[in-house]
Hints:
The complex is a heterodimer of chains A (about 500) and B (about 120).
Chain A: H1 2-21, H2 28-53, E1 56-59, E2 70-73, H3 75-98, H4 101-105, H5 108-124, H6 128-147, H7 152-183, H8 188-194, H9 201-219, H10 227-231, H11 237-262, H12 267-290, H13 295-316, H14 319-350, H15 361-364, H16 366-380, H17 386-400, H18 404-429, H19 446-468, H20 470-485, H21 488-495
Antiparallel strand pairs in A: 1-2
Chain B: H1 2-20, H2 25-46, H3 72-102, H4 117-120
Helix pairs in contact in B: 1-2, 2-3
Amino acid sequence: MSWYLSLPLAIPFITAIFAFFARKSVYGKWISVIGSGASLLASAALMYVVLQEGVIAGQMGNWPAPFGITLVADLLSAVMVVITAITGFAVAIYCMGEITERMEYLGYHALFQVLLAGVTGAFLTGDLFNLYVWFEVMLISSFGLLILGGRKEQIDGGIKYVTLNLISTILFLSGIGLIYGMTGTLNLADLSLAVERVENQGLLTVVAVMFMIAFGVKAALFPLFFWLPAAYHTPAFSVSAVFAGLLTKVGVYALIRMFTLVFDHDVQFTHTLLLWVAAFTMIVGVLGAAAQSDFRKILSFHIVSQIGYMIMGLALSTKFALVGAVFYLVHHIIVKANLFLIAGVANRIAGSTELSRIGGLYKSAPLLGILFLIPAFSLAGFPPLSGFWAKYILVAAAIEIEAWVIAGIALLVGLLTIYSMTKIWGQAFWPAHPDGIEPKLSHMPKFQRWCYLLPIAGLATLTIIIGLFPEPFVTFAERAADQLLDPTEYVTTVLGERAP
Amino acid sequence: MEILLSISVGVLVAAAVYLMLARNVLRFIFGLILISNAANLVIFTSGRLTLGAPPLIEEGALLPPEGVANALPQALVLTAIVIGFGLFAFALILVYRAYTTLGTLYSDDMRVAEPRSEDAG
């Protein structure tokens, strides 16, 4: 059983080692693509097992929980692992077109694979301290990827990204220390039982808020998101795509996991706080985007605003709202990574990401225009694309429990999202290029063109599929939400006979 | 003993916050190093401190005697120190690199990635 859990983790690490040794040859990128493909298969196998058998758990080194390190996959973990592998595979193909030999030589593909391993590990672990270690794996590889190449903007953005993320790490670590002091365990399943026995529930709420802040920095929540728009527009496009798709979502995942499994003792306080934070995150993100004039900066602020929707689903914490949050997570990763990849193509053929310096993309590269419209409309929530259903479920969930204000904000932010997408369309795609050149896709060499366009088309197809046939995905999200709301299966699977 | 450590955690955090509020990035990193050590002390203290009671299990027994220190937080602290060491080595090099490429250590002047609107226009 534990092979299903450890393979999605082991494959990226092994790939990273091979890719590192092949960094001077032309095979490095192929190793990365093949490794990512293998992870995709392994995570699909994991998903199949979890769908068939429910929650599965494996104890590393055969130390029984709660003493050893536990890997657990419930439906939420499994779907996050699958979506990580899909994004990783798509971006690995894209890298073959974008990443220069110099960056390969500096170990790009190895860092990329370690990042994927870190993200997967964070989704699969069932132990709080182990989660910290995976966060560090993710963090250090993302530091490397962010500044690889060493351009001035990268160093500048890197400083802000590194320092603010280190603060969150330290808060996370202190929180771990305090919760261990109170409960004597770090195993998540065991913690969910142990927190009820804590005498001083007020102190537990303090620790809950520490975790909220620590994960809030990772997830780029208001008012802790400033590192994100400072850094995400600086690295290579494939890097910012995989950051945009996955890194903040690890923070969201950690919040969902902790605040459904462990910290559900004072919902009145913590989840109300989360709801306010969600509202501000949505509004501030979308307004920030409206003020920007760079393709990637607009998209970066939209990450912030979209994170608000997922946290809104968590904060409402009804079943229907959690269905929306899970659905939104999956939809958002695909769409957001795709938009950053498209920004990379626009930069490649039109020469910039600054909207005032590019143009004419729709006339000379209509295929790119269509490929942009699919994720852009999906992000804004147009039917029949995936974003429509994600937003629809969340807003319906808010109306169901008569949370009118947050429902109204969610709808308004959707409207403002269209404004930003129209701005990109209206400046980069519609008017003629200011320098009079015609940015054509055929200007790229054939191999590079395919590497750029295949992943974009693949991710866009996924968005359409989720949009046209949402039912199996919603049913899946319902099952995942059931598991989140009633963690009995999770706890009994992890603890075995120790469970009450 | 717990009180002594709690006070030193407080002092470390206070000094760290003071340093981190500086505009100089190098000072900020020093503040981070201090606060990360404060976090390590928090974990260490949370394992309850005992004097002269090593966590050794007697032969044939399944549990250590009552009142020994919990060994797990010490293992966690060790892990955290090692990870922190790597991260701060990276952060220091990054600051040095920022100094050589951007020519400044002051966060107010680091505006390459986010230019002020008057500079950009």
